[in-house]
Design a protein that fits this description.
The complex is a heterodimer of chains A (about 300) and B (about 325). Chain A is mainly alpha-helical and about 300 residues long. Chain A contains 14 helices and no strands. Chain B has 16 helices and two strands. The radius of gyration of chain B is 25 Å and the shape is globular. In chain B, strand 1 and strand 2 form a beta hairpin. The chains are: A mainly alpha (about 300), B mainly alpha (about 325). Chain A: It comes from Phytoactinopolyspora halophila.
Chain lengths: ~300, ~325
């Protein structure tokens, strides 16, 4: 793809004059490797292309020409019908509202917890961090029924608030673990200086710790948002009214019940893919930074 | 804890008593998070554990039955099938993506990145990563659609290239349902190790490769002797997080097959869900999810110990 624009640079970066033969990197082999990798990428992309191809096809054209043919005309009625039928705008708003609330609350809770654990160094902090780490590994199935029962008891069943509370806690378990270890190396001079200036703990948190750790917090925010957006199991159980469901739950339930015809399913899948791709494009940089930061920890 | 072992000269412990009294004040910041944690994680987990020793349809009285649920589980063919399918999920979500991801990342970094430029390498990386950004339920819808039996894209494609005999009801046939779900999970999962391993390779000292090259080591030797050992920490992280994800897999099974046909694609989390919410056999569902939790914790401990051991060996060298 972009191989041609970078080709002129190649000779500059190869000063190694050694007579070693490296057929993978020098000879025609490298073109074969590139071709194989592009073929692999094409296989990975094939489903996306097919979905895109068929989302704008009329049902008659689909049944005549099949899923591989290019549409002769752009047919958007199917998608519009589906959008109105499931009230997709509402689902988008629900997902956005739940994921956004969880991201904000999860970051705040993580920040508070990590402030006490990483900077306050409260007693027994190691066991507390381990506890948060274990919580992060627990399968949601081991929590879901009691949570479902409790939500019923306090009247929170089938409310988005229940989902927001649950995910705030689950996401902040990871956030606390990550932030506490980041705060363990927080520059002590800054804290000491603020203390000497007579700053209270509350002021130190918001005027020293918060601004300095903002890059890490923004990574957490993006992660929490996307993870919560993508969640399926707990929202599936807690949100049963149509007007409260999230995008993955609404589409997952429709697909699971096999109620949609081919082109509608394709349109629906595309509608589920689009927000994810938009988030990816917006958050790409933060995500790349975060994924690698998470891995080294 | 660790403050005790610090030499007295360090700043943190320099203030003595006032520091201690101020350390108490920090507990307040743990309070909201701690209370929420107790209500949403600890209490429900304890209740679930308790319910695994009971028979309860979700309403009315709880009847305590001791270990009956567990005894029943060990004789339940579906239970064993679900865990056999978990092993299949581990192959599809851990073993294959880690192995293929290592190779892809290494080739992207080493061959593509150096010969065709970083832009080409990162573009390809982004393409491989694309399925990872989808909500897993949406990924299930996309692939379920491709695998539709009569007019699906895969079967149409196979017919178009003259392989009409191979066409299948991919997700509806007991013989192909599990391999199909596995293939889908490989597709979903592959981008994650590629991204992590490519980032890890940037950490590796290029002089190692240069020295090996001068010594005449070919690409594959360098891959085996340098790449694999150097990025072992990341490999552990990928293997552990993906194993946990594989044990928990639910969304794709719900969307694609509902565990069927028969129990061909049933997994522990879906089996627990069925007992909780479809059969109102809450105690039994609680027992399944407790066993699942136990296995995840044991696997994590084994992984972490294995990692610690190999790190010690590395240092001892």
């Amino acid at each position: 793809m972009s191989a041609t624009d970078t080709a002129p640079r190649a000779p500059v970066s190869t000063p190694a004059p050694s007579g070693r033969r490296d057929r993978y990197r020098r000879g025609p082999m490298r073109w074969l490797v590139l071709a194989l990798l592009i073929a692999g990428a094409a296989v990975v992309l094939f489903p996306f292309a097919i979905i895109l191809l068929n989302a704008f096809k009329s049902p008659t054209e689909y049944s005549n020409a099949g899923p591989l043919a290019f549409p002769t005309e752009i047919y958007v009625e199917g998608m519009i019908d589906f959008w109105n039928q499931v009230n997709f705008g509402r689902k988008l708003w629900n997902s956005f509202m739940i994921a956004g609330s969880v991201a904000v609350l999860g970051v705040v809770v993580s920040l508070f917890n990590a402030y006490a654990l990483g900077i306050g160094r409260v007693k027994g902090r190691l066991s507390i961090v381990v506890l948060f780490l274990i919580a992060n590994m627990l399968p949601h199935e081991a929590l879901v029924y009691p949570l479902y029962w409790m939500a019923n008891q306090v009247g929170l069943y089938n409310t988005q608030l229940a989902v927001i509370i649950i995910f705030t806690v689950i996401q902040s378990a990871f956030g606390t673990y990550l932030l506490a270890s980041v705060f363990g190396t927080f520059p002590q001079e800054l804290l000491e200086a603020a203390k000497l200036d007579g700053a209270s703990k509350w002021q130190i948190l918001w005027r020293v710790v918060f601004p300095i750790s903002r890059p890490t917090l923004s990574v957490l925010f993006v992660f929490f948002f996307i993870w919560t957006w993508n969640e399926f199991f707990i929202p599936l159980i807690f949100l049963i009214s149509n007007d409260r469901q999230t995008v993955p739950v609404a589409l997952g339930v429709l697909e699971g019940e096999r109620l949609m015809d081919a082109t509608t399913t394709s349109a629906a899948a595309l509608l589920g893919v689009i927000p994810a791709v938009i988030f990816f494009l917006i958050f790409q940089r933060t995500l790349a930074r975060g994924i690698t930061a998470g891995a080294v920890k | 804890m660790s403050t005790l072992t610090k030499p007295p000269a360090t700043r943190a412990s320099g203030t003595g008593t006032p520091d201690r009294s101020s350390s108490r004040g920090y507990w307040l910041y743990l309070l909201p998070g701690g209370l929420l944690f107790a209500a949403v994680i600890i209490l429900p987990f304890g209740m679930n554990l308790g319910l695994s020793f009971a028979s309860w349809p979700g309403v009315g009285d709880i009847e305590w039955t001791g270990t009956e649920n567990y005894v029943r589980l060990f004789g339940d063919e579906t239970f064993w099938a679900s865990f056999r399918n978990s092993v299949a999920m581990i192959i599809a979500m851990v073993v294959v993506p880690t192995a293929v991801g290592l190779l892809l990342a290494s080739v992207l970094f080493d061959v593509i990145g150096k010969r065709f430029g970083g832009r080409t390498a990162s573009t390809l990386r982004a393409l491989y990563y694309l399925p990872q950004i989808l909500p897993v339920a949406i990924a299930g819808i996309v692939m379920g659609w491709i695998l539709r039996p009569q007019d699906g894209a895969l079967n149409t494609l196979l017919e178009a290239v003259g392989l009409g005999d191979v066409t299948q009801n991919w997700l509806g046939d007991p013989g192909t349902a599990l391999p199909s779900v596995m293939a889908i999970m490989v597709w979903v999962q592959i981008g994650y190790p590629v991204v992590i391993f490519m980032a890890a390779l940037q950490r590796v000292d290029p002089e190692l490769y240069e020295a090996a090259e001068i010594d005449g080591a070919g690409w594959f030797r360098r891959f085996r002797a340098i790449t694999i050992p150097q990025i072992r920490p990341e490999t552990f992280v990928v293997a552990l997080t993906c194993t946990i994800a594989a044990m928990k897999v639910f969304g794709p099974v719900f969307v694609l097959t509902r565990g069927g046909p028969g129990d061909a694609t049933n997994v522990p989390s879906y089996f627990a869900y069925q007992n909780f919410f479809e059969r109102a056999d809450v105690g039994y569902g609680a027992a399944i999810s407790t066993i699942l939790t136990l296995i995840i914790i044991v696997l994590s401990v084994i992984f972490i110990r294995f990692q610690a051991k190999s790190e010690r060996k590395e240092r001892g060298r």
